[in-house]
Write a structure and sequence with these properties.
The chain contains seven helices and five strands; from the N terminus they run H-H-H-H-H-E-E-H-H-E-E-E. A five-stranded antiparallel β-sheet has the order 2-1-5-4-3.
Length: 179
């Protein structure tokens, strides 16, 4: 797994970790962490493995639980999915109110089959945009309705924000604005 500078920074910030503390854990200086985060210095394969172990540490699973609570308690219609598989990880009450089935019908399942044509097209362009390598961490697009009665998507604007999870995988926060 390749970790981008933006990915290192996001994972560090999600854990409320200062550059100096991460440097201490890795046996480097703070300036090295800063250069990695700005993609000015490449990680050695050994350091990448150490970073993955630090960020995937079970003690950081509380960060994922906190993120899930923040999504669930949001007053906006938002949901969190696995960035690669589109499995639903969490959804706010306003988002759940849009759906015609209970949360349990979707939780842990891929939502990609419900995507509108515009969302599917944007998904296909993510690789070339550098989404998975961390060159792009947020994307806003206009979408039409998906015409699905069970999990309707209304025409509006969708923002995707890529968030690193404690296991080193990426999540995607999906925020919509109707109209």
């Amino acid at each position: 797994m390749t970790i981008s500078g933006a990915g290192i920074r996001r994972m560090r910030l999600l854990r409320s970790m200062k550059q100096g503390h991460l440097a201490e854990l890795l046996g480097v200086n703070q300036a090295t962490i800063s250069r990695w985060e700005r993609d000015q210095l490449a990680l050695s394969p050994e350091t990448a493995v150490k970073l993955e172990r630090i960020f995937a540490s079970p003690r950081h699973a509380a960060v994922d639980a906190a993120l899930k609570r923040l999504v669930e308690d949001s007053v906006r219609p938002v949901h969190l999915i696995c960035d690669r598989t589109h499995r639903l990880l969490s959804a706010s009450r306003p988002r759940q109110a849009e759906w015609r089935a209970p949360l349990g019908a979707f939780l842990g399942r891929s939502l990609f089959s419900y995507a509108s044509a515009e969302i599917a097209a944007a998904e296909q362009s993510l690789e070339e945009r550098g989404w998975h390598t961390g060159k792009l961490s947020s994307l806003t697009l206009d979408t039409g309705a998906n015409g699905n009665a069970l999990l309707p998507i209304a025409a509006g604007r969708v923002t995707w924000e890529r968030i690193m999870l404690s296991d080193g995988s990426a999540g995607r926060l999906v925020i919509t604005t109707i109209g």
